[in-house]
Amino acid sequence: MDNSSTSSDLGHHLPEDTTPQAPATESLHDATSSASETLAPRTDFSQLSAHAAAIRQELAKIIVGQQELAELLLTALLADGHVLLEGVPGVAKTLTAKLLSRTLDVPFSRLQFTPDLMPSDVLGTSVFRPQRGEFEFRPGPIFASIVLIDEINRAPAKTQSALFEVMEERHVTQDGTTYAMPEPFLVLATQNPVEQEGTYRLPEAQLDRFLFKLHVGYPTAEEEVQILLGHHSGFGGVTTDAVQPVLTAAQLADMRQLVRRQHVEPKLLEYIARLVGQTRAHKGLYLGASPRASIALLNGAKALAALRGRDFVTPEDIQYLAPAVLRHRIQLTPEREMEGGTPDDIVKQIIQQIEVPR
Length: 358
What we know:
By secondary structure, the protein is an alpha/beta fold. It is 50% helix and 16% strand. A 5-stranded parallel sheet has the order 3-6-9-1-10. A two-stranded parallel sheet has the order 2-11. Strands 4-5 form a two-stranded antiparallel ribbon. It comes from Hymenobacter fodinae.
Protein backbone atom coordinates (compact mmCIF):
# COMPACT_ATOMS: atom_id res chain seq x y z
CA MET A 1 0.00 0.00 0.00
CA ASP A 2 2.71 2.34 0.98
CA ASN A 3 4.87 1.30 -1.98
CA SER A 4 2.06 1.88 -4.45
CA SER A 5 1.38 5.20 -2.85
CA THR A 6 5.02 6.12 -3.05
CA SER A 7 5.20 4.96 -6.62
CA SER A 8 2.11 6.96 -7.42
CA ASP A 9 3.58 10.02 -5.76
CA LEU A 10 6.84 9.65 -7.69
CA GLY A 11 4.97 9.17 -10.89
CA HIS A 12 2.98 12.29 -10.13
CA HIS A 13 5.92 14.45 -9.13
CA LEU A 14 8.52 13.46 -11.75
CA PRO A 15 6.88 15.33 -14.61
CA GLU A 16 6.65 18.44 -12.43
CA ASP A 17 10.32 18.20 -11.57
CA THR A 18 11.49 17.66 -15.14
CA THR A 19 9.12 19.96 -16.95
CA PRO A 20 10.70 23.23 -15.77
CA GLN A 21 14.12 22.19 -17.17
CA ALA A 22 13.23 23.12 -20.74
CA PRO A 23 12.22 26.71 -19.88
CA ALA A 24 15.35 26.99 -17.73
CA THR A 25 17.46 26.04 -20.76
CA GLU A 26 15.66 28.61 -22.90
CA SER A 27 16.17 31.23 -20.20
CA LEU A 28 19.91 30.50 -20.12
CA HIS A 29 20.03 30.78 -23.90
CA ASP A 30 18.22 34.11 -23.78
CA ALA A 31 20.63 35.40 -21.13
CA THR A 32 23.62 34.35 -23.26
CA SER A 33 22.14 36.05 -26.32
CA SER A 34 21.45 39.18 -24.29
CA ALA A 35 25.05 39.23 -23.02
CA SER A 36 26.34 38.82 -26.58
CA GLU A 37 24.22 41.73 -27.72
CA THR A 38 25.53 43.84 -24.83
CA LEU A 39 29.15 43.08 -25.72
CA ALA A 40 28.57 43.67 -29.43
CA PRO A 41 29.73 47.10 -30.69
CA ARG A 42 26.91 49.63 -30.65
CA THR A 43 28.55 51.79 -33.32
CA ASP A 44 30.03 50.79 -36.66
CA PHE A 45 33.57 52.19 -36.82
CA SER A 46 34.59 50.37 -40.01
CA GLN A 47 34.53 53.52 -42.17
CA LEU A 48 36.30 55.57 -39.51
CA SER A 49 39.01 52.92 -39.13
CA ALA A 50 39.43 52.67 -42.89
CA HIS A 51 39.89 56.43 -43.29
CA ALA A 52 42.31 56.59 -40.34
CA ALA A 53 44.36 53.75 -41.82
CA ALA A 54 44.41 55.51 -45.20
CA ILE A 55 45.68 58.74 -43.62
CA ARG A 56 48.40 56.84 -41.75
CA GLN A 57 49.40 55.13 -44.98
CA GLU A 58 49.68 58.44 -46.82
CA LEU A 59 51.79 59.96 -44.02
CA ALA A 60 54.05 56.91 -44.00
CA LYS A 61 55.00 57.57 -47.63
CA ILE A 62 57.29 60.33 -46.37
CA ILE A 63 57.33 60.34 -42.56
CA VAL A 64 59.42 57.55 -41.04
CA GLY A 65 58.20 56.31 -37.66
CA GLN A 66 56.27 58.78 -35.47
CA GLN A 67 53.35 56.35 -35.11
CA GLU A 68 52.30 57.80 -31.76
CA LEU A 69 52.39 61.33 -33.18
CA ALA A 70 50.18 60.27 -36.09
CA GLU A 71 47.66 58.69 -33.71
CA LEU A 72 47.49 61.80 -31.53
CA LEU A 73 47.06 64.08 -34.56
CA LEU A 74 44.20 61.92 -35.79
CA THR A 75 42.71 62.02 -32.30
CA ALA A 76 42.81 65.83 -32.32
CA LEU A 77 41.28 65.89 -35.80
CA LEU A 78 38.34 63.74 -34.65
CA ALA A 79 37.99 65.70 -31.40
CA ASP A 80 37.91 69.03 -33.28
CA GLY A 81 40.85 70.47 -31.36
CA HIS A 82 43.94 72.51 -32.18
CA VAL A 83 47.46 71.10 -31.74
CA LEU A 84 50.76 72.67 -30.67
CA LEU A 85 53.79 70.75 -31.94
CA GLU A 86 57.00 71.36 -30.01
CA GLY A 87 60.41 70.05 -30.95
CA VAL A 88 63.92 71.02 -31.97
CA PRO A 89 64.53 72.07 -35.59
CA GLY A 90 64.71 69.30 -38.18
CA VAL A 91 62.37 66.69 -36.64
CA ALA A 92 59.65 67.19 -39.30
CA LYS A 93 57.13 69.19 -37.27
CA THR A 94 56.16 71.43 -40.16
CA LEU A 95 56.38 68.62 -42.70
CA THR A 96 54.05 66.41 -40.66
CA ALA A 97 51.49 69.20 -40.38
CA LYS A 98 51.65 69.89 -44.11
CA LEU A 99 51.27 66.23 -44.99
CA LEU A 100 48.28 65.84 -42.69
CA SER A 101 46.62 68.74 -44.47
CA ARG A 102 47.26 67.08 -47.84
CA THR A 103 45.38 63.95 -46.76
CA LEU A 104 42.23 66.07 -46.35
CA ASP A 105 40.35 67.55 -49.29
CA VAL A 106 39.94 70.95 -47.60
CA PRO A 107 41.50 74.43 -47.98
CA PHE A 108 44.94 74.85 -46.42
CA SER A 109 47.05 77.90 -45.59
CA ARG A 110 50.40 78.46 -43.95
CA LEU A 111 51.49 81.39 -41.80
CA GLN A 112 55.10 82.10 -40.94
CA PHE A 113 55.01 84.06 -37.69
CA THR A 114 57.62 86.81 -37.39
CA PRO A 115 58.19 89.65 -34.89
CA ASP A 116 56.80 92.27 -37.32
CA LEU A 117 53.59 90.36 -38.11
CA MET A 118 50.43 92.38 -37.49
CA PRO A 119 46.96 91.06 -36.52
CA SER A 120 45.57 92.20 -39.88
CA ASP A 121 48.18 90.02 -41.61
CA VAL A 122 46.52 87.03 -39.97
CA LEU A 123 42.82 87.87 -39.78
CA GLY A 124 42.38 90.13 -42.81
CA THR A 125 41.60 93.79 -43.32
CA SER A 126 38.93 96.11 -44.67
CA VAL A 127 39.70 97.79 -48.02
CA PHE A 128 37.86 100.88 -49.26
CA ARG A 129 36.21 100.49 -52.67
CA PRO A 130 35.78 103.97 -54.23
CA GLN A 131 33.42 102.68 -56.93
CA ARG A 132 30.92 101.54 -54.32
CA GLY A 133 31.86 104.03 -51.65
CA GLU A 134 32.17 101.38 -48.94
CA PHE A 135 34.69 99.15 -47.21
CA GLU A 136 35.07 95.53 -48.21
CA PHE A 137 36.54 92.91 -45.91
CA ARG A 138 39.36 90.88 -47.42
CA PRO A 139 39.84 87.65 -45.41
CA GLY A 140 43.34 86.84 -44.21
CA PRO A 141 45.15 83.49 -44.39
CA ILE A 142 43.45 82.31 -41.19
CA PHE A 143 40.33 81.63 -43.29
CA ALA A 144 41.13 78.03 -44.19
CA SER A 145 40.14 74.63 -42.88
CA ILE A 146 43.66 73.68 -41.83
CA VAL A 147 46.00 76.50 -40.83
CA LEU A 148 49.67 75.79 -40.22
CA ILE A 149 51.30 78.44 -38.03
CA ASP A 150 55.05 77.94 -38.17
CA GLU A 151 57.15 79.22 -35.26
CA ILE A 152 54.10 80.57 -33.46
CA ASN A 153 56.15 81.96 -30.57
CA ARG A 154 57.95 84.47 -32.82
CA ALA A 155 54.98 86.86 -33.08
CA PRO A 156 54.39 89.58 -30.43
CA ALA A 157 51.54 89.58 -27.92
CA LYS A 158 49.14 91.72 -29.99
CA THR A 159 49.34 89.25 -32.87
CA GLN A 160 48.96 86.29 -30.53
CA SER A 161 45.85 87.86 -28.99
CA ALA A 162 44.31 88.11 -32.46
CA LEU A 163 44.05 84.31 -32.42
CA PHE A 164 42.02 84.12 -29.20
CA GLU A 165 38.61 84.63 -30.77
CA VAL A 166 39.14 82.56 -33.89
CA MET A 167 40.65 79.56 -32.08
CA GLU A 168 37.92 79.38 -29.43
CA GLU A 169 34.77 80.68 -31.15
CA ARG A 170 35.63 79.76 -34.75
CA HIS A 171 34.82 83.19 -36.16
CA VAL A 172 36.43 86.60 -36.68
CA THR A 173 34.87 89.97 -35.78
CA GLN A 174 35.96 92.85 -37.98
CA ASP A 175 34.39 96.34 -37.94
CA GLY A 176 31.38 95.02 -36.04
CA THR A 177 30.73 92.17 -38.48
CA THR A 178 31.27 88.52 -37.62
CA TYR A 179 32.73 86.17 -40.23
CA ALA A 180 32.45 82.44 -39.59
CA MET A 181 35.32 80.07 -40.25
CA PRO A 182 34.94 77.12 -42.64
CA GLU A 183 34.23 73.63 -41.35
CA PRO A 184 36.40 71.92 -40.33
CA PHE A 185 38.77 74.43 -38.76
CA LEU A 186 42.04 73.22 -37.26
CA VAL A 187 45.13 75.15 -36.21
CA LEU A 188 48.43 73.24 -36.22
CA ALA A 189 51.19 75.36 -34.68
CA THR A 190 54.89 74.61 -34.27
CA GLN A 191 57.52 76.02 -31.94
CA ASN A 192 61.12 75.40 -31.00
CA PRO A 193 61.58 74.97 -27.22
CA VAL A 194 65.33 75.62 -27.28
CA GLU A 195 65.86 78.89 -29.12
CA GLN A 196 64.81 81.93 -27.08
CA GLU A 197 66.21 84.90 -29.02
CA GLY A 198 63.53 86.66 -31.05
CA THR A 199 60.70 84.68 -29.46
CA TYR A 200 57.81 85.58 -27.17
CA ARG A 201 56.26 83.45 -24.49
CA LEU A 202 52.78 82.32 -25.50
CA PRO A 203 49.99 83.72 -23.29
CA GLU A 204 48.31 81.22 -20.99
CA ALA A 205 44.96 82.07 -22.55
CA GLN A 206 46.25 80.98 -25.94
CA LEU A 207 47.94 77.81 -24.68
CA ASP A 208 44.66 76.81 -23.06
CA ARG A 209 42.99 76.90 -26.48
CA PHE A 210 45.15 74.07 -27.79
CA LEU A 211 43.67 70.62 -27.27
CA PHE A 212 47.10 68.93 -27.22
CA LYS A 213 50.70 69.94 -26.87
CA LEU A 214 52.78 67.21 -28.50
CA HIS A 215 56.51 66.67 -28.17
CA VAL A 216 58.17 65.68 -31.44
CA GLY A 217 61.36 63.84 -30.57
CA TYR A 218 64.38 62.53 -32.46
CA PRO A 219 64.02 59.38 -34.56
CA THR A 220 65.61 56.13 -33.46
CA ALA A 221 68.87 54.97 -35.07
CA GLU A 222 66.98 52.52 -37.31
CA GLU A 223 64.49 55.19 -38.37
CA GLU A 224 67.29 57.62 -39.17
CA VAL A 225 68.93 55.00 -41.38
CA GLN A 226 65.63 54.65 -43.27
CA ILE A 227 65.49 58.44 -43.70
CA LEU A 228 69.00 58.45 -45.12
CA LEU A 229 68.21 55.55 -47.46
CA GLY A 230 65.17 57.40 -48.76
CA HIS A 231 67.19 60.51 -49.53
CA HIS A 232 70.08 58.54 -50.98
CA SER A 233 67.91 56.49 -53.34
CA GLY A 234 66.44 59.57 -54.99
CA PHE A 235 67.55 63.15 -54.41
CA GLY A 236 65.34 64.44 -51.63
CA GLY A 237 63.40 61.20 -51.37
CA VAL A 238 59.66 61.11 -52.07
CA THR A 239 58.05 64.49 -52.75
CA THR A 240 55.02 65.77 -50.86
CA ASP A 241 52.99 65.46 -54.07
CA ALA A 242 52.92 61.71 -53.46
CA VAL A 243 50.50 62.28 -50.56
CA GLN A 244 46.91 62.32 -51.84
CA PRO A 245 43.62 63.43 -50.21
CA VAL A 246 41.70 60.50 -48.72
CA LEU A 247 39.08 62.32 -46.61
CA THR A 248 36.52 65.01 -47.42
CA ALA A 249 35.02 67.59 -45.08
CA ALA A 250 31.65 65.81 -45.16
CA GLN A 251 33.22 62.47 -44.26
CA LEU A 252 35.13 64.07 -41.39
CA ALA A 253 31.91 65.64 -40.10
CA ASP A 254 30.24 62.21 -40.08
CA MET A 255 33.18 60.71 -38.21
CA ARG A 256 33.03 63.46 -35.60
CA GLN A 257 29.34 62.73 -35.07
CA LEU A 258 30.22 59.13 -34.25
CA VAL A 259 32.84 60.32 -31.77
CA ARG A 260 30.40 62.65 -30.00
CA ARG A 261 28.02 59.72 -29.43
CA GLN A 262 30.65 57.64 -27.65
CA HIS A 263 29.57 56.04 -24.37
CA VAL A 264 31.26 57.36 -21.23
CA GLU A 265 30.47 55.97 -17.77
CA PRO A 266 29.61 58.58 -15.11
CA LYS A 267 32.44 57.29 -12.93
CA LEU A 268 34.89 58.17 -15.72
CA LEU A 269 33.57 61.72 -15.80
CA GLU A 270 34.28 61.89 -12.07
CA TYR A 271 37.76 60.44 -12.72
CA ILE A 272 38.52 63.19 -15.24
CA ALA A 273 37.30 65.85 -12.82
CA ARG A 274 39.49 64.47 -10.03
CA LEU A 275 42.59 64.31 -12.27
CA VAL A 276 42.21 67.89 -13.44
CA GLY A 277 41.14 69.12 -10.01
CA GLN A 278 44.28 67.68 -8.45
CA THR A 279 46.43 69.98 -10.60
CA ARG A 280 44.90 72.92 -8.72
CA ALA A 281 45.87 71.48 -5.34
CA HIS A 282 49.31 70.04 -6.13
CA LYS A 283 52.13 71.57 -4.10
CA GLY A 284 54.49 71.49 -7.07
CA LEU A 285 52.21 73.68 -9.21
CA TYR A 286 51.25 77.32 -8.89
CA LEU A 287 48.92 77.20 -11.91
CA GLY A 288 46.48 74.34 -12.35
CA ALA A 289 44.41 73.33 -15.35
CA SER A 290 41.10 74.98 -16.20
CA PRO A 291 37.73 73.28 -16.82
CA ARG A 292 38.58 73.54 -20.51
CA ALA A 293 41.21 70.87 -19.80
CA SER A 294 38.52 68.54 -18.46
CA ILE A 295 36.46 69.01 -21.61
CA ALA A 296 39.57 68.46 -23.76
CA LEU A 297 40.38 65.25 -21.90
CA LEU A 298 36.83 63.97 -22.36
CA ASN A 299 36.65 64.79 -26.07
CA GLY A 300 40.13 63.43 -26.70
CA ALA A 301 39.39 60.16 -24.89
CA LYS A 302 36.21 59.67 -26.93
CA ALA A 303 38.12 60.21 -30.17
CA LEU A 304 40.98 57.92 -29.14
CA ALA A 305 38.56 55.13 -28.21
CA ALA A 306 36.91 55.44 -31.62
CA LEU A 307 40.29 55.29 -33.37
CA ARG A 308 41.03 52.09 -31.47
CA GLY A 309 37.72 50.56 -32.54
CA ARG A 310 35.80 50.91 -29.29
CA ASP A 311 32.46 52.58 -28.65
CA PHE A 312 33.25 53.24 -25.01
CA VAL A 313 35.98 55.11 -23.10
CA THR A 314 38.31 53.37 -20.65
CA PRO A 315 40.49 54.81 -17.85
CA GLU A 316 43.52 53.89 -19.96
CA ASP A 317 42.39 56.27 -22.71
CA ILE A 318 42.22 59.10 -20.18
CA GLN A 319 45.61 58.27 -18.68
CA TYR A 320 47.24 58.01 -22.11
CA LEU A 321 46.05 61.48 -23.15
CA ALA A 322 46.51 63.25 -19.80
CA PRO A 323 50.11 64.45 -20.48
CA ALA A 324 49.22 65.83 -23.93
CA VAL A 325 46.18 67.65 -22.53
CA LEU A 326 47.71 69.00 -19.31
CA ARG A 327 51.41 69.68 -19.92
CA HIS A 328 50.82 73.14 -21.46
CA ARG A 329 48.05 74.10 -19.03
CA ILE A 330 50.00 73.76 -15.77
CA GLN A 331 53.00 75.65 -14.46
CA LEU A 332 55.57 74.45 -11.96
CA THR A 333 56.57 76.37 -8.89
CA PRO A 334 60.09 77.87 -9.07
CA GLU A 335 61.25 75.38 -6.43
CA ARG A 336 60.07 72.40 -8.47
CA GLU A 337 61.68 73.81 -11.61
CA MET A 338 65.00 74.20 -9.78
CA GLU A 339 64.75 70.55 -8.75
CA GLY A 340 64.56 69.60 -12.44
CA GLY A 341 60.89 68.64 -12.46
CA THR A 342 58.73 68.73 -15.57
CA PRO A 343 54.98 69.06 -16.12
CA ASP A 344 54.90 65.46 -17.36
CA ASP A 345 56.40 64.31 -14.05
CA ILE A 346 53.62 66.06 -12.14
CA VAL A 347 50.95 64.58 -14.39
CA LYS A 348 52.40 61.11 -13.85
CA GLN A 349 52.34 61.62 -10.08
CA ILE A 350 48.73 62.75 -10.17
CA ILE A 351 47.70 59.71 -12.24
CA GLN A 352 49.35 57.43 -9.68
CA GLN A 353 47.64 59.19 -6.78
CA ILE A 354 44.06 59.12 -8.09
CA GLU A 355 42.19 55.84 -7.70
CA VAL A 356 41.29 54.30 -11.05
CA PRO A 357 37.57 53.48 -11.44
CA ARG A 358 36.72 49.91 -12.43
